[in-house]
Every structure is written in structure tokens, then in C-alpha cells.
Design goal:
It contains 34 helices and 23 strands. With about 800 residues, the chain is α+β, with helices and mostly antiparallel strands.
Amino acid sequence: METYADWLRARGDDELRALLSARPELIAPVPADLTALAARAATPTAISRALDRLDRFTLATLEALLVLPAPVKPRTLSSALGATASQSGAAVEKLRQYGLVWGKASPTTAPGVRQGLPHPAGLGPPVQEVFAGYNSERLTQLIIDLDGAEPRGFPDSPRLLRRLAELLAAPEALIRDAGPEARAALEQLAWGPPVGRVADARRPVRIDTATTPIERLLARGLLAAEDDRTVSLPREVALHLRGGRLFRDVSAQPPPLAAPAPTRAQEQQAGSRGGSTPPHREDLVVRAAAGEAFNAVRLVEELLERWGLDPPPVLRSGGLAVRDLRSAAQLLDVEEWQAAVLVEIAYAAGLLTRSGDLDGEWLPTPAYDLWLMRETAGRWVELARGWLKSDRAAGLAGERDDRDRLINALSEAMVRVSAPATRRATLRVLVQAEPGVAVDTERLRARLTWLYPRRGGPLRDRLIAWTLREAAMLGLTGFGEPAPYARDLLDGGDAEPGLEKFLPEPVDQILIQADLTAIAPGPLVTELARELALAADVESTGGATVYRFTPESVRRALDAGRTAGDVTGLLARHSTTPLPQPLTYLIDDVARRHGHLRVGAMASYVRTDSPATLDEILADRHADPLRLYRLAPTVLASGLQRAQLLDGLRSLGLAPVAESPGGGVIITRPDAQRAEPPPTAEIVRLRPDESTDASMIAAAVRALRAGDEAARHGAEQARLRADAPAGEPPRSPAAATVEQLRGAVERGGRVWIGYLDQQGQSSSRIVEPVRVEGGFLTGYDATRAAVHRFALHRITGVAELGDED
């Protein structure tokens, strides 16, 4: 008889490629041959993943094939589904593509499917199966109560089960006799799940002794006890309660995304109120989305620039403290949930990581500097790809877990493995909507429930809502509609050109005013933006960004190694107006006092050319915590570390600089702090999803065909060798194996070898040897369609293959 593996073997290459494209996990790694592929496809994990990808109608079709008696005719199947023959036929073909049904004449469910769907269509097992655990005595008592007479002949279990099935084929009289309360209990189980929990389910009950509704059902065979606490509703009884229907309501078409067209009366009523708002034009949608995309890039840059200067600490339990998240929200002038989204996106894109294991800080990575060198559209693409692939749900920040512990942003508690799949599914539904249609949340949930009925639940509903608001915040959607470049991003294409033409051009000119503020009329070029952020503080954002110069901000630029001439020259080059005199006075005044004091390590010391300055410091009682004492007229020593002494002197209103042992000024460069991501951290790269790579799928099909060829040769050679068990790979002494391989290298022929993997599993390979040296055989592995190195000690044997093979 044909097996499932034989059916796979008979499929064409195009059909195999379609199967592997639909179920890419089957080739991770590539199986040895098609027999191994069939075994892997039948595993519970593989079956569960395939079922999760089915829409409601296709899943219902598979459930119907499990319930209906075989062989299932097309007319019977379409009638059970309430669909047309073409609709049910298309569903069966999709199931064949997924390898969940097989066979040529009538569809047969694949191995493992019945175990993966224990209650198809919400139905329990049939009578003969659900009562199979009853002993003959219990079955006899049940039949006597139902039939009024003892079974004739030898009461073996198969005959008793058949008789019981006959008695329960029309259970209406028994249900009425059990009473309305018992019927209500059955109605709760009728549409599934067909199992319930009761105490002492296997207690012996008879019709004349049953008192409770459950006992009356057990005594009449309307419920079957599976174990001491579980009862099951027989399939025949459930179908009777359903009126013979397999499904309550199954549609072959997904729910509509747009609201139904208004009736004429509704149109007239809307007209009397002034008419309805016309749908947004596509250019308005994309411009609104592009504006949000630009804003998201700007916010991430502003956040990481600040954290490069003043990084927040990593909590001992991991993650970001609530106060630090709140500070980030205040810095960016956004809500806390938006700040959580931004930090999670930066982390997912590899721009942010923690430094060290203990007492670490959240710092930008070196990838952030490379990110800054890209154009705005390219930066956005990296952020969007990171968001799409991240398995973290930013919406959980600030909530509590099952143990009532706070969930912090950037912590491991944010991980939800279903998050990336839900994001992609949500956005794909939005893309499928007609242009001009903004899909509301309820219709979106209904469509996703139909598309992925096995992935539902409260978490998915929350992920959908979070995806919609995060997509709007990131600029993937505008006015609830997806932007055109969002479609390119989902399809793995290049989204940069579609976004770039709608982004504002960076400017290199600013307007500096006499009140010590500078106005940037648009996004600044990267170099100017970084230098201005170093020398001034952002006061407000919006259509234009306002910067304010303060003594602290100017000193920050001087601490980073800039001179007064550098700052003044930069501003003069990029200002549309002459520099105001108050600003030049401010820069010169701060620069005049900057570095007047020098701090070194003594633990630390203070040096100056002015003894009077040191006298003033020693006389100031606020300097007592600095533990200063005079070493010379121009030198003070301290027991504090240099960084602590610098901070203490600055708190007194002074402007010291750090000094090296040679007397030079140490450039602190607070804007250059970076942290390398740990080796185990995955940084999202800009590459298409490998699971859908057509070239990889094609290579896997070639490898499977080659593996089948190797297995076929193995079987043929085993039949020719009387001393080898049928079907096993060849075996030969180690010395003879090496000699045969060297001979094959000289002849340039092919050999069949047996090879043990790292788990000790034996497999067959067809190899064209190229070289034997250093304990390895190097050759072209036809089974894997690639050049491979084989450890000689793992080769169990060698057999030569003729040219005709």
C-alpha cells in the first residue's frame, strides 16, 4: 500500500517547493531524505504549526474530513460545510499543499493530524470508541437499562459496543427521559469542547438509582466516563443536539473589512445632515505617515544622544527603572507608553544595549554611529524592521505579571513569542483593505480570527491594539490606512525610495536670536545636529526646533574638546544672521573661566596659577566635603577620586578640567560613550526573512531528492550483499574504508558511504571523493548538493557505485 512518504516522493518539485514554503520549519535542518521529511511532518510540533497557519474554513474542512466516514466524497464534504463544491475543493487543495491531507482518489488526513485535533469540529469520539474503556459487565448493565433486556449470546465487548451504538443512534427519547436539567448540561457540551469535569465520574449508576442530572446522563449512556474526573459527550449524541450539523456557522469567505454600503434612506439622512466626510486621499495618508516616521527617527536619535551623555542604570533584575522611563518621556515630550516603544525599538534594532553584567548602564552601541551616517529614510527602515521582528511587547511596560511583579521596559518579562507574527498579520490585513478604507479594530479582529482561529485569545487582542497604535506612531499608517512604503516593507522590498520623497530635506542653516536661542526651521544635517545638541539644550520641538544656549551647555561643548573659537565658528557658518553679541559674550565668558582649575589624581589634586583662587575655595564651607588640603601655594590635594572632585568643584560654580599626569588637558568626550552588545544578543539585520527564500527552498528540494537517491542505492546494495542487513548503510573495516576512498579519489568515481552524525544516527550519503587527508574525506555530497568534509572515524563503510548508478 502507498504510504505518506511514497505520496511525498511522487509529488513534483514544484509541489514540494510549495510544501516547504508553506511549512519552512520542516527544513530546519534539511532532512536526510523524503522518508525523514514525512516523519518530521507528522511530529506533534510540526502538525501544530501547520494547523496554526490555516484559516477558519480550511481548518473546518480538515475537521470535517476527520469526522465524516471515509472515503469522503466531494458532495458530502461540501454539504457538511455548507459551501459550494469549488470552495471545498480549493480548501482540500490547500490542505494537500500543506501536506495535511494526501492521496489521489479521496483525501486522507496525514499521519499525526488526528492527534493534533483531538476534538474535530468540537465533537467527542463515537460511541464505540468512547465506551471502549468500559468492561463487559458495565456495558451489559448499561444495555439492560436502555433496552430492557439482557443481550443475547456471549456478551463480548465488540458486540456490546455495537449494540450500544445502535441504542444511542436516536437519543431523543433518552434525553427527554433524563429531564430538562440534564438536557441543559448536554447543551453546554454540544458545540464543544465535548468534555467536562465531575467528581467520581466512574461511580456505578443505574437508571433506577440515579438522582442528579449527571448521574441520569451517565446511567443512560448520554455521557461516558473517561477517567475518575472526566466525562465525554459521545459524537452521535452531540450531532443529534446540533440537528445533524457539523458546524454552527462556517463561512468560506473572510469577514469584510469595510462597513456595508449604506442604504438609500441612510444616504438621504446623511445628506440632510450635511453629507459625510470624503475618504482621505492617498497623498494625504502618506504625508501624514511620513511625518510620523520622521518624528520617530528624530525621537530615537534625541533619546540615544542623551543616554550617550547620561546613561540610565540597568536594574538588578534587568530592564529600565520606571523613573528613568518617565524621565525619557519628559525629555521627548511624549507619553510613557510611547517612550517605552521607542526604547524597545532602539534595543530591537541593535542601537541600544546594556554595558557589563553587574552595575551596567543602558548605552548606545557602535551600530548607532553607523545608523547616524545613513539618510533619514534608511534609519527609519532599520527601526521599522527591528519593530517588526522584535518578540517584545512594549505595551506591557508598567503592568504586572502573574506574580504581581512590575514589568519594566527592556526586561525579559516583555518577551511574547507571538508578537512578531501578530504584527505582520495585522499589517497585512490593513494592506488588503480597499484604498480609502480605515479598518476599525473590531473588523480587524474578526478578520484575524477567521484567518488564524487557533491563535486567538486576550493576548492577541491586546497585541492587535498595540500594533495599531505603534504602527501609527512609527509612520507605517496614516489616518488608519497603511502607507505605500509600508507595503514594500512587509513584502521585503526597498521601502526607502517610497518614504524618502515625502520626507523634508535636511537643512544646514539656523536662525540665532538675541535671547540666546537658535531656531532650526527643519531637520538638520547630521553633523550640525550633533554639534548643536552638544552646545545647546533643546527647548521645544515641532515644525521647528528651538535650542537654548546656557553656561552649562557651552561648558558641555568645551568639556568635549571644543574651543570657544570652534563653537563660535560653527555657529557663524550656519547662522543666517550675524551672531548676537550676548551669545558671543556668553561663549567667551565661559571659555575664559573654563580650565582655570586643573584636577588630577592624588587620589586627586587641584592646580592653578592663582593662589587667591585656592584661598577662596578653602575658605568656602561648602568645600568641606571635598577634603582639600594645600600642598603648595598653587596646589590642593584631595582624598576623593578625580571624577568626584570635578563634580564637587562644579557644584561650587567653578569650571575645572581634568588633567593628565603630563599636565595636558583630558578630553572627557561624554558624547562618545558606547557599549558593545553581548555575544548572545541578536541584532536585527536588514535582510529578507530566510524562511521564504526561494533559493533555499529549491536547494532543500534538491537535497531531499539526492537523499532519496542515496537511500535507494543503499537498499539496492544491501540486497546484493548477503552479509548486510536489508536497508542498512554499508559497513567495512576502517583500513579498507580508507583504501577504497583513496582509490575512488584516483578514479574520480562515486561511492556510497554510511555516516554517523553527532547523535550517533546512521545515514546514507552518495559522495564524489576529492581528497582524503588529515582524518577527513572532502568531496561533493550529492545528498546535500554541496561540498562537505566527513570525519573518517564516523564513516561506517564504503561501497562503490557503477557508472550506471
